[in-house]
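question for whoever is on the cluster today: can someone run the full assembly for these? two chains, 717 residues total. i dont have access anymore since they changed the login thing
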Amino acid sequence: MEQLELLMGGFASALTPINLLWVLIGALLGTAVGVLPGLGSAMAVALLLPVTFSLEPTAAFIMFAGIYFGGLFGDSTSGILLNTPGHSSAIASTFEGHRMAKSGQAAKALVTCAIGAFIGGLIATTLVVFFAPTLVKMATVFGPAEYFALAVFAFLAISAVVSESVIRGIAALGIGLALALVGIDGPSGTARFTVGMPQLFDGISVIVITVGLLALGEVFHIASRIHRDPVATRIETKGRARLNLSDFKKALPAWLRGTAFGAPFGLIPAGGAEVPTFLAYGTEKQLAKRRDDPEFGTTGSIRGLAAPEAAANATAGTAMGALLALGLPTSATAAIMLAAFQQYGMQPGPLLFERSGNLVWALLASLFIGLVILVMINIPFASVWAKLLSIPKHYLYAGITVFSMLGVYAVSSAVLDLWLLIAIGLIGFLMRRYNIPLAPVLIAVILGPMAETELRRALAVSEGDLGILVDSPITVTLYLVLAAALALSAVQHLRHRASRKV
Amino acid sequence: MSLTQNQPEAVPVVKPQEKARPRFGTGRSEFVVVAVLYAVAIFLTIGTATMHVQGKSSPGPQFFPIIVCIVLYLVATLLAIQILRSPKVPDNAIHPGRGQFSPDMLHDLGHLGKEGDEVCDDEAAQAPAKTWKTYSDWRTVGMLFAGVVAFVALLEPLGWIISATMLFWTVAYALGSRRRFFDIGVGLLFSSIIQLAFGAGLGLSLPSGLIGGIL
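^ ran it for u. tokens below:
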């Protein structure tokens, strides 16, 4: 068990007092952005990236580990208490969670969430520790054609397979690829789309794009609706924040089932935890029907809340494995983590374990530590966290606006970046207004350069013969699976269109 | 079809008298997105055509931009056709992940069924208090936009503390805060803490501007 030894080494470097402090800060920040609706771990990491440049990478990543899981610990709070899920990963937990809150079990619901998130994350991170070396071994046989196929797979899976509208998903992908093209082309040294401005030779910073789309775009969107949308009423956290043995007996199998749904989805670029959380909820619903559970759909079933909550964090856990071992981001948050590695001059993928092994194992160890700290600050203080929901919105968003300006200015002290930030913020606003997904833009910005380089490399080797792209069993399998998923999703769209016309 | 229980009532975007005879523009404001997509595509086309290519690698630096251009033109045209064929009036339904996920797919995966939707409706049955001419509140968005533009223009001349306080105040005011004098204090406190924590603590260089000149 070589991994255990390495992991222990990771714990040794993560368990210093100063690093524990970073995990704690990360966990606090992560829970806070999770509780507050509309923010998320992706935005928190993007905003903190530039201001943490002066830290050494290990400390920064240890903090990001806390934020990464923390965002999923708090995300159900607003759904349970206000019945307005702040994040789409929490929609499935809202159904039964809010019913529990209405029947006076709000505190119990919040505890169920925290334990569910802990169990899901714990099992998934353990899986990553044991299977990461296998993934790395798999990835070492990947050549340019395979990496290109992987990128195409991620692009189309995230923009077309699961999205509400295929056209809008691909449009988002196109915008992202276009943004990534700006700057000096690595292989040839040609300046592309820089309109003669030397400041653009390095390309548009990923931080500007992410903060613009996720933070400023969100503020614009909130501004466009804040005086119009009705205000949700909050349920006070009543009931005892404790699970008794019979609750625990009910919830434990559901937590495990949820984890089983969530873990595989971390490896698939399906945009995050939404699909597995709904799968987990649907399964609990079917099971409840079979055993005639009177709570489900009325006073709120603890099982219907426990399963999606565990699924969400299990997905995040294995997504970290796919990111570290393959360099494949499977959700928007993972994409930002990848950008964070690149900012520190590291490229996730098979080589990362060799070159920065210490950092990787410290990061994995701090994921475990982060989970423990998160469960410790979430179970006793769940109702304290819920108080964050009463921060006046105008101060919250004013603070976010100022902080995003700070973050972007900190990248290179350039006012040009701030103008770009405003322009990209407006694009983010437009995309929210017309329900064009944001995740494809982020994935395209981050994987676009890799896709281009690998495609050109493959074609240079084959001297322009496109056959090389489908020349190995791995690429053929990837394209076939992608085609099957696209076909399934097309059938799904057409079936619903037909049933709506009737 | 709804995914959450508490759905705000859909706010009609057109005035009642206009409802009877919808104009061409109704529900077709998404043409803005088509325009943006075409603009990006045309910018890329011009940039690719006039590129000073270095080196002789094949495929060269123009290869990938051409593919992206084709995708953009195609998708913009398809989107335009879709908007022409079925205009969309904004609804207040939840779009999971803002369009990232198909609600139909999640509905099926979660076995939500009809009975789930019925529960949803009893709570959302409040009539909209007021109707507006446009879906978006352009006055608030405009104030916010003016605030960020002014901040970026004034950051270097005025320095971080003053311009960040102004930005904080403008955003808070636009989003509905009515404690004008109190907010100046909150903004000042917030921007000063940032200057201290990140400027002095983590070593970011923030423009000092006017105050720096006085000190």
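summary bc i know u wont read the tokens: The two ends of chain B are 62 Å apart (CA to CA). Chain B touches chain A through 101 residues (CB under 8 Å).
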